Amino acid sequence: MNPAPFAPLTGPIGFYPVVPNARWVQRLLDWGVRTIQLRIKAADHEDAEDIAWEVRTAVAAGRGVPGAQVFINDHWQLALEYGAYGVHLGQEDLDTADISALREAGLRLGLSTHTPAELARAKAVQPSYLAIGPVYPTTLKVMPYEPVGLERLKLWVKDAAPCPAVAIGGISLALMEGVIACGVDGVAVVSAVTLAADPEQAAREGLRLAGS
Q1: In this predicted structure, what is the pLDDT of residue 3?
Q2: Which of 63, 134, 173, 202 lies 20 to 30 Å from 28 when distance is taken between CA atoms?
Q3: Do 111 and 71 meet the contact criterion of CB atoms below 8 Å apart?
Q4: How far, in whole angstroms, is CA 77 from its chain's centroid?
Q5: How far apart are CA 189 and CA 187, in angstroms?
Q6: Three-class SS state of 11
Q7: What is the mean pLDDT of residues 60-66?
Q8: Which of 99, 106, 198, 70 is nearest to 206 (CA)?
Q9: Which residues, at least 6 apart from 29, have a Cβ–Cβ distance to it below 8 Å?
């Protein structure tokens, strides 16, 4: 018996920055970005209370903006506790997270995939979206997977259907148009905004490119 699908997204994904703290979440919301992921680096927040504060603050920021879709990476227990819009999990989390509790609570779920086998496994969960990557080489995170590239991205997006697909990994603003042409529903960026000389300008350009 197949599990019930996760709640669908309430808006388009489009431009999807992944940021390290709640302050970035609020800044991006102020600049018009509506889909954001809070990915807390363990090295930056070793204190459990700090992590809880970041998650709680990010969730509250999203709730204060109509149409906001704020996802919490990894910390699914805190996401449940604070009533987050959604969570984003990796493949390894499928073995440990309480997927049923997340589904029953009405949270949206995004899952990372890096290979056709992972894509099939994640699709069976019927998440709210599937992330495919890394599309390009990335220096921010050591990846045990080779880059997907645009040709395979096109094929995997078709395999993900009808689940929305998000491209992630090494995507700069200059590369976004080529990625979007592969049929993805969203483009996740990590450094394109947070390391930009003018983050607000970068965010607005990302929104323009993604048509969101």
Answers
A1: 80
A2: 134
A3: no
A4: 17
A5: 6
A6: coil
A7: 97
A8: 198
A9: 36, 61, 62, 64, 65, 68
From first CA to last CA, the distance across the chain in angstroms is: 37
| Number of domains composing the chain | 1
In one letter, which amino acid is 208?
A: R
Residue given tokens 């599990």 in the structure block = 3
- Cis amide bond preceding 17, omega within 30: no
Q: Are 112 and 88 in contact (CB under 8 A)?
A: yes
Q: DSSP letter at 83?
A: T
Closest CA to 111 of 54, 160, 70, 154: 160
Partner residues linked to 131 by β-bridges: 112, 166
pTM flag (> 0.90): yes
Whether the pLDDT of residue 14 is over 90: the answer is yes
Q: What are phi and psi of 32, to 5 degrees?
A: 100, 0
Strand partners, 129: 110
pLDDT for residue 143: 64
Q: Residue 1 falls within a domain, yes or no?
A: no
CATH number at residue 20: 3.20.20.70
Does any domain span residue 2? no
Domain that holds residue 135: 14-210
Count the alpha carbons within 13 Å of 183 in the hemisphere toward its beta carbon.
Answer: 14
Task: Judge contact between 17 and 206, C-beta under 8 A.
Answer: yes
- Give the model confidence (pLDDT) of 33-47 as tens digits: 999 999 998 666 568
Residue 26: count of CB within 10 angstroms of its CB: 19
Given a contact cutoff of 8 angstroms between Cβ atoms, the answer to whether 14 and 186 are in contact is: yes
